[in-house]
Amino acid sequence: MKNFTNYKEYDKKENLKIGSKVVHGAVGHDPFTGSVSFPIFQTATFRFRALEDSFGYDYTRLQNPTVEELERTLAMLENGTHALALSSGMAAVMCAFSLLKRGDHLISSDDIYGGTYEIAKTELKERGVETSFVDLSDFELFKESIKENTKMIFIESPTNPTMKVADIAEICKIAKEKGIIVVVDNTLLTPYYQKPLNLGADIVIHSGTKYLEGHNDTMAGFVITNKEEYFTPMRAFLTYQGACLAPLNAWLTLRGIKTLEVRMQRHNENALKVAEFLQNHPKVTKVYYTGLKDHKDYATTMKQSTGFGGLLSFEVDTKETALKVLEKVNMIIFAGSLGGVESLICYPVVVTHHEVPEEERLKLGINDRLLRLSVGIEDAEDIINDLAQALE
Ligand SMILES: Cc1ncc(COP(=O)(O)O)c(C=O)c1O
């Protein structure tokens, strides 16, 4: 019988390219049994050998080998030193916001995910944290919004649905001078196309439900950092809020991540083709996709990201056309969420941004003619044909 030591002792695969890292994970196979697939430790608790002599694990809410393998893998991919796996992306947002205290000021991208907006407007407000929603693609506006008590900048880049891009490195330079924490929601591009910690951010968060897991079948969230002083209180938040990820969901996410490179490349390739088709359609009045050379933030994107991802939005001529598209799509599914292998189309006004008051929504360009499309990995021709018949 081998001496069963614990998984924490195994090294990361730092020398590999990202396409190989995603396939093999941090430890990857099971060094104790030879299993090529990292095992699911479907257990709530762990046996002690004797008093004060454990196998390195006590209780799944505190640590679980499958969840830890996923955390190590995310830390490796984002180039962080610490990562937390949580039950959803919202839990990850809450975990980062747990660093904010009464009297603090938060600067947030204006066009953020509706759920994050709602937390800032309700939960943070009740906690005594004031939030300024700012167009962070406008650097001057960003600088003007900094206050004495600004504690955190929360960047979604690109934003969703109007795909605005903030210059992460420039924002981080100013934040560093002033001791402000920079958090980046990297859900849309994933570490495959953008690594915010390399650009100077302190914390990266993800809805793992999207591209990382990639199959529209599992919820997950992540927080990654290279700063122990932020990691320790966030780990405590996870433990005491009980926002831990279930071992099976961790395993499904590890499996999803194995194909991250090929999926992201295909999402990107398909989205570009679909964006170009939409741009030339007579009923389409505007296309938001950062991969289009005439996108207002194309240059910033090229500076900090290696790709554009699979999410785009487009505006059609009338509300009636928008509703007809939702009704007429066949292969493309009318559903919320994004980042999975299936193409999903949704209506941000109702599905993702209903929390945002109408006046603010319209200012952001989220009107009743706007549709958001998460371009899947099907054959691009089928996606385009489906849109063409729906737009007829
Ligand atoms: C950019 C972004 N961040 C965070 C979230 C929240 O993630 P979850 O739905 O996994 O809780 C979402 C969800 O749509 C999102 O799009």
Structural class: alpha/beta
CATH topology of the largest domain: Aspartate Aminotransferase, domain 2
Largest sheet: 7 strands, mixed
Instruction: Report low-confidence residues grouped into runs of 5 or more.
Output: none
Proportion in helices? 25-40%
Ligands bound to this protein structure: pyridoxal-5'-phosphate
Radius of gyration from the alpha-carbon trace, in angstroms: 21 Å
Tell me the CATH superfamily of the largest domain: Type I PLP-dependent aspartate aminotransferase-like (Major domain)
Per CATH, the class of the largest domain reads: Alpha Beta
Number of strands: 14
* Spatial strand order of the main sheet: 3-9-8-7-6-4-5
Describe what this molecule looks like in 3D.
Helices cover 37% and strands 16% of the residues. With 392 residues, the chain is of the alpha/beta class. It folds into two domains: 7-257, Aspartate Aminotransferase, domain 2; 260-391, Alpha-Beta Complex (Aspartate Aminotransferase, domain 1). Strand 4 (105-109), helix 4 (114-126) and strand 5 form a beta-alpha-beta unit. The radius of gyration is 21 Å and the shape is globular. The mean pLDDT is 95. It binds pyridoxal-5'-phosphate (PLP). The site of pyridoxal-5'-phosphate (PLP) has 14 residues, from helix 3.
Question: What's the short story on this structure?
Answer:
The chain is of the alpha/beta class and 392 residues long. The protein has helices at residues 18-24, 65-78, 89-97, 114-126, 139-144, 168-178, 190-193, 228-241, 247-257, 260-279, 298-304, 319-328, 358-364, 380-391, and strands spanning 48-50, 53-54, 82-86, 105-109, 130-134, 150-156, 181-185, 203-207, 221-225, 284-288, 311-316, 333-334, 344-346, 370-374. Helix 7 (190-193) links the parallel strand 7 and strand 8.
